[in-house]
């Protein structure tokens, strides 16, 4: 019997992040979808109905904070993890709408731990 | 000719570019679009913030639920953490310690679109009470030496959320800027045996050229050497070094005067981004003869750039005498 995989939407404008996250998260047994911009992310959010979103903040066009607001407006219960290279954005109260804030690193232990925690709730 | 002016407390110099003489209408204030969408500070979203440490307006037995009129919560992603020891240590000539502190957010209203100038007396007095309540509570923690309270309004002033809020940070050290101010006050006191702020208030009231408004207990002035156009200080008229010593009746006066001040500012410069900071005596130094608590209001109308960073000088295109006159002549009932 096959078990439905949990779906994760990764939103980032850097190709290398997608490759890294996809490989590591698929190894953990998740299905990973990608969006390269805020606008694409909102479309993918409606189409694919992910179980969790990993969201970059600094993106050209619509920034991650705006995407976060709109996603939470549509589905208040959706877990969203902000993933940024800038730890100082943690001070930005707008990031409070997210469920976690992870500073980008090649070591994905923190990210994977957060994903597991939020998907098991 | 520009005027070089020296602040009598810390000796900071500012350049008042008199010939520019910018009036409120000369400043271009970018009107921000309402972002809308989900707001973690709104009523009914209490589950998205860390558990509250203070709430007014609803029974204590129902925490983190709607019905509140003001709420205080710890920062969800704090820069300084409350648990742990300071572990002060030296590495050669360098000092460091663990990042211990408290960072809290005062959610001033349950309504997303309610701004400070539009709030009622009752709503604003709650904000001032909350500042005192949180200061008294955090002061019990012996690791903390100073509590700074500030508000950022508008994106240009550092506020990323539209929902009206202010912030509190408890620190294990007295910040350099505050220390410099206290030392300036002490130098003046040692020389004249008087509080410099009390002398400023006395002189400003007698000259009446930089007073914005006043009532029985408080006064708002544009300081003699302001860093920013329309900078204002709100001060108690009688000597008081610690904000937490403010009496209940003084809180009513403070609320009246503060509301009048921000309403005048908002009428002169609609929706101008601003910061305000509450400067008070360090924790456990509550009754200082030489220090005087006050609130500094700094509208964000100019940019701090290389010259300011490099020299500590500020260039201000609006003389405080003109700013005070504009603000004083505003008709709030019109």
Secondary structure layout plus pairing:
The complex is a heterodimer of chains A (121) and B (334).
Chain A: E1 7-11, H1 15-27, E2 31-35, H2 38-48, E3 52-55, H3 64-74, E4 80-84, E5 100-103, H4 109-119
Parallel strand pairs in A: 1-2, 1-3, 3-4, 4-5
Helix pairs in contact in A: 2-3
Chain B: E1 3-6, E2 13-16, E3 54-56, E4 70-74, E5 89-91, E6 94-96, E7 102-107, H1 121-138, E8 146-153, E9 165-171, H2 176-192, H3 196-207, E10 211-214, E11 218-221, E12 232-236, H4 248-268, E13 274-279, E14 294-299, H5 306-311, E15 314-316, H6 320-329
Helix pairs in contact in B: 1-4
Note the main attributes of this structure.
heterodimer; A: 121 residues; alpha/beta; Rossmann fold; five-stranded parallel beta sheet; 4 helices; 5 strands; globular; B: 334 residues; alpha+beta; HIT family, subunit A; ten-stranded antiparallel beta sheet; three-stranded mixed beta sheet; 6 helices; 25% helix
Spatial ordering of strands, largest sheet of chain B: 3-4-7-9-8-13-14-12-11-10
Q: How many beta strands in the DSSP annotation of chain B?
A: 15
Question: Sheet with the most strands of chain A?
Answer: 5 strands, parallel
What's the Cα radius of gyration of chain A? 13 Å
CATH topology of chain B: HIT family, subunit A
CATH architecture of chain B: 2-Layer Sandwich
Task: Please describe what this structure looks like.
The complex is a heterodimer of chains A (121) and B (334). Chain A is of the alpha/beta class. In chain A, 38% of the residues lie in helices and 19% in strands. Chain A has one domain: Response regulator (Rossmann fold, 3-Layer(aba) Sandwich), CATH 3.40.50.2300. Chain A is globular. Chain B has one domain: HIT-like (HIT family, subunit A, 2-Layer Sandwich), CATH 3.30.428.10. Helix content of chain B is 25%, strand content 21%. Chain B contains six helices and 15 strands. Chain B is globular, with a radius of gyration of 20 Å.
